[in-house]
Amino acid sequence: LNQYRLIVPRTRNLIEVVQFIILIALFTLTMGNRDYSQFSGWEIAFIIYAAGWCLDEFASILEHGWHVHTQNLWSFLDITFMVIYIVYFVIRIHGSATGSDEEARQALDILACAAPIIFPRIAFNLMPENMLFISLRAMLGDFLVLTLVAGWCFFGFLLAMSWLSRWRSEVNKDTDPSPITIAKWMLWIWFGLDGTGVTRSVDFHLILGPILMVTFAFLGNTLFLTILVSMLSNTFSQIVVNSTAEIQFR
């Protein structure tokens, strides 16, 4: 056993942390000194450095394969940042070529959305053995699956209330909420933010409207959220029980 090889992962992690700190610094300086009419020096430096960082990430995917690469705790954050950067870069270059300040503004607004991605990313490098971060990836998978299932099921409620709304509009022309408005009401009910949908459900149908909306509220707030909490708790408990194996696997 060549004992000096044991320091390679530690050294590599240190280099990755330094690289990402530089990326965050350039990102912060770019957004703090953004200029819609022309490229600032900080923005040019960020574009070049971020392009190299994305290239390194892409090469890592090709080297290790998609399945192995996505086992990293922060892989989903890196891939999301790459997508945001590519969209920003394309719009920014096109806006610069056409002289459109509005496109430049939109590009920088898209880039601003990367802040919730790259700032938490550094915590994954500094605390790679934290059980919260290790379990977060698996919990996000459960959350997305259940959310998609719930969205598919609740789409039927949206169609039913939308069609009831059209029937109601023949009786009262002043009351005809659009499907987008109904979807917002349902979303607010699901997250427990507002009960406007329950109050306005009589606009769909005097009897069927409240029945559908209250049924949706029971299913969304009680059944699906309870199942979600149970699934996430079970996933977290399983990972904590096998914490040593999970850390070694990562």
Write up what this structure looks like.
It is built from eleven helices and no strands. With 250 residues, it is mostly helical. The two termini are 22 Å apart.
Summary tags:
250 residues; mainly alpha; 11 helices; flat
The portion of residues assigned to helices is: over 70%
Low-confidence stretches: none
Structural class: mainly alpha
Largest sheet: none
Q: How much beta, percentage-wise?
A: under 5%
Could you report the average pLDDT, rounded to the nearest whole number?
Answer: 81
Q: Order of helices and strands, N to C?
A: HHHHHHHHHHH
Annotate the secondary structure layout:
Layout: H1 8-32, H2 41-64, H3 66-69, H4 75-98, H5 101-112, H6 115-126, H7 131-171, H8 179-190, H9 196-199, H10 208-241, H11 243-249
In short:
It is built from eleven helices and no strands.
